[in-house]
Design goal:
3-stranded antiparallel beta sheet; 6 helices
């Protein structure tokens, strides 16, 4: 049987593409070239009709870099490389239910995250994505100049810490590592290490304030940037189906797990790939 050629299909004008004709369990060199180009150019890529085993999920991730073992998420008991993004039928709080980018609180933020659907609700549970290249490009020249010289503080204590959001929710029993929280400082506008393009690098979940500014002084400008970056023209909505995989660049996108399926279970397997300090 003749092997299909990998092709790219835009999902929406806002962000993201589907990569078609690829078997992630056994991608050819040509497939990998197409996937790498799509990842570089679009920030988030989607795959359908995949049959990845956990071992194949790990093997695909390792083709991109070192796996970053998650300190906080519930771990898959058999595969420590895989973090479980789980919501049980009786739980009301989901994981990732707000705009964020993974691991921005690390000195070397995660390069990417590969999420595989394992158990899905009958309807709902979509994920929203936003393009931080386009968000930056959509700013005025004056605001771009203001942001160029700024750095921002990113912290996870209020999310994963002892008094954080998850420890006071019905997700508390699954989370760990509350003593391992920390913070990092990054430029507000980064030059992306892979594409060389400029991207906005703040997010509502983990950015607390601008370096050298108070929280109160930072609040209004950060809230403006958050609202701007989540504008419909920069975003897309991914509907999960059995066999779906999403792979996003944490330096170039945000994501938001929609929590609209109370009373149903949703289980996803996530592998995070380590990154580099941002300039």
């Amino acid at each position: 049987m003749e092997r299909q050629t990998a092709t790219i299909r835009k999902v929406t004008p806002g962000c993201g593409v589907e990569v078609l004709g690829v078997d992630l369990a056994n991608p050819s060199n040509s497939d990998m070239e197409t996937i790498r180009a799509a990842y570089r150019d679009y920030g988030v890529i989607f795959f359908r009709d995949q049959t990845l085993t956990p071992e194949e999920h790990i093997a695909f991730a390792r083709r991109w870099g070192e796996i970053d073992i998650n300190k906080f998420f519930p771990a898959n008991g058999e595969y420590p490389e895989i973090a479980e993004v789980r919501k049980e039928k009786e739980q009301k709080v989901n994981i990732g239910g707000g705009w964020h980018t993974d691991h921005s609180y690390d000195a070397a933020p995660a390069m990417g995250s590969i999420l595989v659907a394992r158990e899905l609700p009958e309807t709902g549970g979509d994920t929203l994505f936003a393009d931080m290249y386009k968000a930056y490009e959509g700013l005025s020249d004056g605001l771009k100049k203001t942001l160029e010289g700024l750095k921002a503080v990113h912290s996870n204590a209020h999310v994963f810490g002892t008094a954080g959001a998850y420890k006071s929710s019905d997700q508390a029993s699954g989370f760990k590592g509350e003593s391992m929280v920390g913070e990092a400082v990054h430029p507000v506008v980064i030059t992306h290490p892979l594409s060389g393009r400029k991207a906005l690098y703040v997010n509502a979940a983990f950015t607390t304030h601008f370096e050298g500014w108070t929280w109160a002084e930072s609040k209004s400008l950060l809230e403006y940037l958050y609202a701007h970056a989540a504008s419909p023209e920069f975003t897309c909505r991914f509907e999960w189906r059995e066999g779906s995989v999403a792979f996003w660049d944490n330096r170039a996108t945000w994501h938001f797990a929609v929590n609209d399926y109370h009373g149903e279970k949703r289980l996803m397997h996530r592998i995070t790939i380590g990154g580099v300090p941002l300039q």
